[in-house]
């Protein structure tokens, strides 16, 4: 759709972009007759097209997001609210989708700053729960959203089914993708020791472990390797990846880090 944002495609705005050779059927109004007088060649003027930008925010509302100090879910809500606000103020078309093992919350195709209060109410009323299944969610999303635009994925990416196939579905739709991984400080530097019974917050899977310094060291190494693998996977497929923990102020993430990555100006 036509909009206010410059597209990579050529169109019919007032801003000149380039020339190309005239071919039969082209609009004679766009021929540059001054060039024809000098070179005796028919060249057509091309102009920048302005398009409507679709901004989609996909955010994780599974059980693992209902944890952490500062709280991961609240942090993601704040980032989603800030990005939605920026999109609405710029008159972009904004959609928000919360997911666990399916798309459980949605607000589609809103536009204009007057709807900011509705976005805040929508985010404030969200609940967390259930297992995360990015593969199923991404497949369904990709099948029903065929337009171009920006997709921002907010999650801890702690998905037992993995992230590779889910991201592959989204990349395959040629979206301009941003993946933001959010972890709580206690997940990065857990303060645990002794004999513990650990219960998975999403599927209640149980593991009995003895937490020691060597085990914590191994955990940190594996977490670092996992995040590095995710970053490399995204980078190789043209997805902009950003890691943050919930101690980083959300406005710093949006206004500084995401500006550096080119998401906002």
Write the layout of secondary structure elements.
Elements lengths: L1 E20 L11 H7 L3 E9 L2 E7 L11 H18 L3 E7 L3 E8 L5 H9 L9 H11 L5 E6 L8 H9 L3 E8 L1 H4 L5 E6 L6 E6 L1 H24 L3 E6 L4 H11 L5
Parallel strand pairs: 3-4, 3-6, 6-7, 7-10
Antiparallel strand pairs: 1-2, 4-5, 8-9
Account of the 3D structure:
This protein has 265 residues and is an alpha/beta fold. The chain has helices at 33-39, 72-89, 116-124, 134-144, 164-172, 185-188, 213-236, 250-260; strands spanning 2-21, 43-51, 54-60, 93-99, 103-110, 150-155, 176-183, 194-199, 206-211, 240-245.
Q: Looking across the biggest beta sheet, what order are the strands in?
A: 5-4-3-6-7-10
* Helix-strand string: EHEEHEEHHEHEHEEHEH
Count of individual helical segments: 8
The first-level CATH class of the largest domain is given as: Alpha Beta
Number of domains: 2
Q: Indicate the proportion of strand residues.
A: 25-35%
Total count of strands: 10
Mean pLDDT: 89
Q: Profile the largest sheet.
A: 6 strands, mixed
The CATH homologous superfamily of the largest domain is called von Willebrand factor, type A domain
Predict the CATH topology of the largest domain.
Rossmann fold
N-to-C CA distance: 22 Å
Helix amount, in percent? 25-40%
Structural class: alpha/beta
Give the low-confidence spans. 6-12
Shape: elongated
CATH architecture of the largest domain: 3-Layer(aba) Sandwich
Our Rg estimate from Cα atoms comes to: 23 Å
